[in-house]
Amino acid sequence: MPTLNLFTNVPVDTVVAADILKDASKAVSKILGKPESYVMILLNGGTPIIFATTEEPAAYGELISIGGLGPGVNGKLSSTIAEILQTKIQIDGSRFYIKFYDVQRSNFGYNGSTF
């Protein structure tokens, strides 16, 4: 159930979006050691964002997971997602924040219930 929600002020066409979604899904699955069939990635392009007083390309992400997160894993996720954004839509890593949420099973709903 890892879910990565990404927001960027860069307009993203469908081809680039598909590449980002696929690359991020594989990376989150691999780094967290969870099946990719459980991973959800959302990409919100063209979102108004100002960061460090400018509207230059920037991004914000939130990754939610039931377990698997921690200092080492979070650092690897942060650098990997930043690299994907740099490669695909030229967002410098210094213009990207990501927040990690490690949630309890009872706080995440699925299929009309909780995990």
Could you give a quick summary of the protein structure above?
Belongs to the MIF family. The chain contains two helices and six strands. By secondary structure, it is of the alpha/beta class.
Helical content band = 25-40%
Q: What strand line-up does the widest sheet have? A: 2-1-3-4
- Radius of gyration over alpha carbons? 14 Å
Supply the number of helical segments: 2
Number of DSSP-assigned strands: 6
Low-confidence stretches: none
| Amino-to-carboxy terminus distance | 9 Å
Q: Can you tell me the overall shape?
A: globular
Beta fraction: 25-35%
Organism: Cucumis melo
InterPro entries: Macrophage_inhib_fac (IPR001398), Tautomerase/MIF_sf (IPR014347)
Keywords: Cytokine, Isomerase, Secreted
Pfam families: MIF
Can you put this structure into words, describing what you see?
This protein is of the alpha/beta class and 115 residues long. It has a domain at 24-45 and 84-115. The protein is 33% helix and 25% strand. The protein has helices at 14-32, 71-89, and strands at residues 3-8, 40-44, 59-65, 96-102, 109-110, 113-114. The longest helix is centred in the N-terminal third of the chain and has 19 residues, at 14-32. Its main location: secreted.
